[in-house]
Amino acid sequence: MDRALLSCERFRDLPAILEIAQANGLGLELQEFADPGILEGDWRGHVTRYRKALSGFEGELALHGAFFDLFCGSPDRQVTAIARERFRQNLTIAAELGAHVVNFHINFLPLIDDPGYLPGWLKRQIAFWPPLAQEAGTLGVTIVLENMWEPDPAIQRQVLDGVHSPHLRACLDVGHARIYSKLALETWIDTLAPYLVYTHLHNTNGQQDIHMKFDDGVLDMPAILNRLRSLPHPPIFCLELPDAATLQASLEHLQLGK
User: Fold this and answer.
1) In the 8-state DSSP scheme, what is residue 212?
2) Whole-model pTM?
3) What residue ranges in 84-230 does DSSP mark as E strands?
């Protein structure tokens, strides 16, 4: 049986997606708290609304953390301070909602071709995450680092190896890996396997970061799912799709124990 969650981008989408989750014994990933407008505004009011709407919900909860322009590997300490503030805010929100996973992007910039960029970036990343991982552990939360523009999973893996915390793990976004990397998805899975606890699953046209239902696009989703299932510790499957219709249409690919 697959351990799976459904993504929910906005509060207005929650009733329909919550119904699907409850009918199929699935969890939810709440994505609205990645929005800087929410985080700068009445985020506590949003937390209250979500808690009320989710009252009685017994499925797992995860949170997509802030990522817009948050370069936590920046050499500018003021930039990394802003990223740290936002990430800590997300950890607080996750704890208040009862979410046990928070997803963050590492935002490596592959178009910077200075040979010193990657070594310096890795050093700064490895210094950035330990205090947040420790705070997450205290709150009962696991941080998962998601690939975005990284062309090689070794970049993500080196950060995780360097920090080496049980509260800092990997998230594989299969669409990002297909679009921004020339390496096979099998390579991504094998490289991240020791840390891989979470996935973002959707199909893609191979050119744009659009989230398509499993039966559309260029990815062989049944093969990818089976490869993930074959790992010694299969990760959580989060169906990251834009609406209830595409989520419902992709459920047939999951092994559910209703």
Assistant:
1) B
2) 0.96
3) 101-105, 142-146, 168-173, 196-201
What's the one-letter identity of residue 165?
A: S
Of 152, 150, 148, 106, the residue nearest 129 (C-alpha) = 106
In angstroms, the CA 131 to CA 202 distance is 32
State the Cα–Cα distance between residues 178 and 79, nearest whole angstrom: 29
Give the domains, in start order, of the chain with CATH numbers: 4-252 (3.20.20.150)
Per 3-state DSSP, the chain is made up of helix, strand and coil in percentages (nearest 5) of 50, 15, 35
64's CB contacts (< 8 A; 6+ apart) are: 7, 29, 30, 31, 33, 34, 102, 103
> How far, rounded to the nearest angstrom, does the alpha carbon of residue 225 sit from its chain's CA centroid?
17
SS3 236: strand
SS3 25: coil
Provide the 10 A C-beta neighbour count for residue 76: 9
Whether 16 and 58 have beta carbons less than 8 Å apart is answered as: no
* Tokens read off for 2: 């697959």
| 221-229 vs 185-192: helix crossing angle, rounded to 10 | 20
Q: What is the pLDDT tens value at each position of the chain, 258 positions in all?
A: 999 999 999 999 999 999 999 999 999 999 999 999 999 999 999 999 999 999 999 999 999 999 999 999 999 999 999 999 999 999 999 999 999 999 999 999 999 999 999 999 999 999 999 999 999 999 999 999 999 999 999 999 999 999 999 999 999 999 999 999 999 999 999 999 999 999 999 999 988 889 999 999 999 999 999 999 999 999 999 999 999 999 999 999 999 875
Greatest Cα pair distance in the chain: 53
Could you tell me which residues are beta bridge partners of residue 4?
A: 237
